[in-house]
Amino acid sequence: MDIGMVGLGRMGGNMAERLKRAGHRVIGFDPSAKAREAWTQRGGAAVDSLEALVGGLARPRAVWMMVPAGEITAKTVSALTDLLDRDDVLVDGGNAHYKDTLCRAAALRDAGVHYVDCGTSGGVWGLAEGYSMMVGGDKAAVERLRPVFEALAPGPDQGWGHVGDVGAGHFTKMVHNGIEYGLMQAYAEGFSILRHKREFELDLHQVAGIWREGSVIRSWLLDLTADALAKNPSMEGIAPYVADSGEGRWTVAEAIDLNVAAPVISLALIERLRSRDTDSFSDKLLAAMRNQFGGHAVKSE
Hints:
globular, 14 helices, 8-stranded mixed beta sheet, 8 strands, alpha/beta, 13% strand
């Protein structure tokens, strides 16, 4: 089947490669000439414009976007809206906010274009392991793309599913990423406690390896943690700064809107924000308060 892939970065390029290996015809576009060249070096077909991409696909067309959430997604959808025809399908495989997805789907519906939102997990490992995909959209449109989802997934009936109407895919992926925040924070805190028990001289990589087999807390995330500890046991050269791409914030905001208690995910997000404050005014003020009411010593910088 013909697939147009918009966005040939690391994840988009790997997804295109997995589809190509499964026998699908993939035409790729990326505004970066370097990304297009990298795709052609992998044996893929690349074009230098969205017009050429859409024009090169068999009807009804299927275009898959793997671009960053926000303005880039909005501009890409807007440009494709003018190029696609009735009964074409546009898939957003990025991490867009589900409310934005609902608005974009409504606009495309007027043109008769199906909008499918596919929350995608798997990162750089997806080429070898397959991707986990949470798909939202019209049932007929999703079913038409079944061969694509089956090719990208770990197995034809594994790791993917049609979770509901349009918006449901990105909503489910949003919560998935919120859970990820909590799991990562728990692992990080646990290994930090182990490291601070100096007298036992624990080998954290060894401990991670033990936990990977038979333990109730074993997971792929623990596998990756073990790999990181093997390469850099002391985390030397890594700044204690943790970024976030937005999904955790969206999950916490949605939990508040729904009156759902989500303390673990919320605190994990707050810890990421705290990691960025290298000159914490609040901590300085706390020290000053203790000095004021109890005469406790204040540590100088």
